[in-house]
Amino acid sequence: MKDGWVTTPMPAELAKVDLSVPDPEYWKKPIDWVSAGRRNVDYILVDKEKAGSSDRLDWDTLVKPKGCSRRGWIMAGGLDAGTVASAVRRFHPQVVDVSGGVCDASGLRKDPALVEAFIGNAKTALVE
Questions:
Q1: What integer pLDDT is reported at residue 20 of this predicted model?
Q2: What is the pTM of this model?
Q3: Cα separation of 76 and 101, whole Å?
Q4: pLDDT (0 to 100) of residue 13
Q5: Buried/exposed code over 32-42 (b: 16+ C-beta within 10 A; e: otherwise)
Q6: By the 8 A CB rule, do 60 and 100 touch?
Q7: What is the pLDDT of residue 91?
Q8: CA-CA distances (angstroms) from residue 118 to 45, 84, 104?
Q9: Cβ atoms within 10 Å of 98's Cβ, excluding its own
Q10: Residues 113, 117, 123, 127: is their CA dihedral positive or negative?
Q11: Exposed, middle or buried by CB within 10 Å (0-12, 13-18, 19+), for 102?
Q12: Per-residue pLDDT in tens (0 to 9) along the chain, 128 residues
């Protein structure tokens, strides 16, 4: 996601990738999962360009992905115990992801109390 836009690489079909030639790097080739109509992925992860940085997504420009996966989307990008409930209420993601938002002061270890608070706040927002 860049500047609030969900971006995908050019489809392999349009990039003129010769699929008839065996290529061990095939899985790295760009494929547009949305317009190609494949819907082979279960979830789409929406995160900042630098994942795991604890930088928060710009909620004012966030566009929820629709119809590009079988089960829904995963919201990441700077979530923590204090923001997850608002994110769930506002955007209704099927999954929320957290990493740095539940770390202790060292930034190296997960704080069990923050993990518990994150999960509790996410669950509470689901039933509201």
A1: 63
A2: 0.66
A3: 10
A4: 47
A5: bbbeeeeeeee
A6: no
A7: 92
A8: 19, 7, 13
A9: 23
A10: positive
A11: buried
A12: 555 555 555 444 445 555 566 666 655 555 555 555 555 678 888 887 766 666 788 888 888 887 777 788 899 988 999 999 999 999 999 999 998 889 998 888 999 999 999 999 999 998 87
Query: What residues contact 12, with CB distance under 8 A and at least 6 apart?
Result: 19, 29, 30, 31
How far apart are alpha carbons 66 and 78 in whole angstroms?
22
Element at 45 (helix H, strand E)? strand 43-46
- Contact assessment for residue 8 and residue 32, using Cβ atoms and an 8 Å cutoff: yes
SS3 for 96?
strand
pLDDT at 10: 47
Site of tokens 């995908």 = 8
Q: Which residue has 């930088």 as its token pair?
A: 55
Half-sphere exposure (Cβ direction) of 93: Cα atoms closer than 13 Å:
25
Here the tokens at position 36 are 């190609």
Q: Report DSSP state, residue 55.
A: P
